[in-house]
Amino acid sequence: MEDGHLSLGKYIVRREVLDESRLDVVAQKGTRPSKPTVCEQLKEMLRCSVPRLKGILLIWIPILSWLPKYSFRENIIGDVISGCSVGIMHLPQGMAYALLASLRPVFGLYSSLYPVLVYFIFGTSRHISVGTFAVISIMVGSVTERLAPDSNFIVNGTNGTESLNVSERDSYRVQIACSLTVLTGIFQ
């Protein structure tokens, strides 16, 4: 199609003369990719394939990537011993921190078990101990006592006796602590 050679410092180009139809063929007119529309981009983003689904699951649930490679023979004894020692520490500590938060001790057991279980499934670090903290428990306790003081749950009895409705107070304080926790999580 093109011939060029140097002769006496000149460059000569010889090209065939193209009409419009031949130019379309040579230039491959119309085959240039156009920018995809927003709808096409959304379809591509939401398209699901097995490798893509696997990649998303491995990103969001890291246990699926490391558990099949876990060496039970080498690591299980050490992991069970360390898990028991951490559990022995977390259980009474969680119960005490629940009292600091002005809640019943059983809620400290929940806060000792469930965060560790959730982190086991969704966490990325292999060496971590998740649990409650004394300062946070005291801060939650100040909020629960301020929003649900004992004076709001006094029940008048007969002959001038007054009693405290402990179950209603505790359930309202649990609602306050849960709401505070969810709201803090949203902020973070």
TrEMBL record:
Entry membrane topology: Multi-pass membrane protein
InterPro entries linked: S04_transporter_CS, SLC26A/SulP_dom, SLC26A/SulP_fam
Entry keyword set: Membrane, Transmembrane, Transmembrane helix
A Pfam family assignment: Sulfate_transp
Location within or outside the cell: Membrane
Residues of the SLC26A/SulP transporter domain: 77-188
Protein name as annotated: SLC26A/SulP transporter domain-containing protein
Origin species: Ameca splendens
Lineage: Eukaryota, Metazoa, Chordata, Craniata, Vertebrata
